[in-house]
Amino acid sequence: MNDQTVFFRRNLPHIQPEHSTFFITFRLASSVPHETILRLKEEQALAEHSLRSTIEDTDKRVLAIAQQRKRYFGKFDSLLDGASYGNVWLKDSRIARIVSDALHYHDGKEYNLLCFCIMPNHVHLVFSVGEYSHQYKGKFGHLLSPILFSLKRFTAREGNKILCRNGSFWQHESYDHIVRDEWELHRIINYVLENPVKARLVKQWNEWKWSYVKTM
Q1: In sequence order, which ranges of 106-181 are alpha helices (DSSP H)?
Q2: Which pLDDT value is given to residue 88?
Q3: In this structure, what are the phi and psi dihedrals at residue 106, rounded to the nearest 5 degrees?
Q4: Are 78 and 25 in contact, with CB atoms under 8 Å apart?
Q5: Closest Cα partner for 170 from 112, 109, 118, 207?
Q6: Cβ neighbours of residue 159 under 8 Å, at least 6 residues apart?
Q7: Cα 212 from Cα 100, distance rounded (Å)
Q8: Which residues, in sequence order, are bridge partners of residue 133?
């Protein structure tokens, strides 16, 4: 059993199987206090160390760590949903439209877009690489970096134009998770689409203008 979840790191992992489906979350710069990030990371590191030290069975240990990381992500995402700190530039419909159009633009070129949700200060995104993975073979150390770099660079430039500003638009680190099976894919898509409901922005997921799910 191999845990392939990676949490909020600036440099994405080099082990990313071809034909994978990814759940990605990236956020605006300074959308969560730096001190809060450090505290959450320290809590997570201590929790994982405890699990590694106390659970001898490999499969049980990996499962426990994966569950702990899901709880960590849940705490982090709840902070973002509250939008009580920092930038909320994605509330501007002009900027949200730029991000939405960019996500759709790459569909069928660099990935198969399955769903996304653009929140006031972060973006949830699910896509599969599949047949497009050959574009990166031999060119990059991993699959996600060129995709996210292109998305974030373009949307940051265009967003800053609207805001009449310079400087960082997106936070450098992202959350990425390799989806293991169809059951988990359905669970994650439901999580993404329900995010505006959870944040009390709408009552029904399909009332949120900046959500998308591909009809299977």
Answers
A1: 144-163
A2: 93
A3: -80, -10
A4: no
A5: 118
A6: 89, 95, 98, 99, 169
A7: 9
A8: none
Q: Which two tokens stand for residue 34?
A: 């730096």
Cα R_g (the chain), whole angstroms: 17
Nearest C-alpha neighbor of 185 from the set 128, 131, 108, 132: 128
Q: Which tokens in the block code for residue 59?
A: 């499969």
Measured CA to CA, the distance from residue 155 to residue 158 in angstroms comes to: 5
DSSP label at residue 148: H
* Cα distance between residue 13 and residue 16, in whole Å: 7
Spatial separation of the C-alpha atoms in residues 78 and 118, rounded to whole Å? 15
The two three-digit tokens of residue 193, written as one number: 């689409």
- Residues 114/213, Cβ–Cβ less than 8 Å: yes
Query: Can you give the pLDDT of all 216 residues of the chain as single tens digits?
Result: 333 333 333 443 333 455 689 999 999 998 877 777 778 788 888 888 888 899 989 888 888 887 777 777 777 777 777 776 788 999 999 999 999 999 999 999 889 999 999 999 999 999 998 766 555 554 434 568 888 999 999 999 999 999 999 999 998 888 888 898 899 899 999 999 999 999 999 999 999 999 999 986
Going by C-alpha positions, the residue among 93, 94, 83, 86 that lies closest to residue 169 is 86
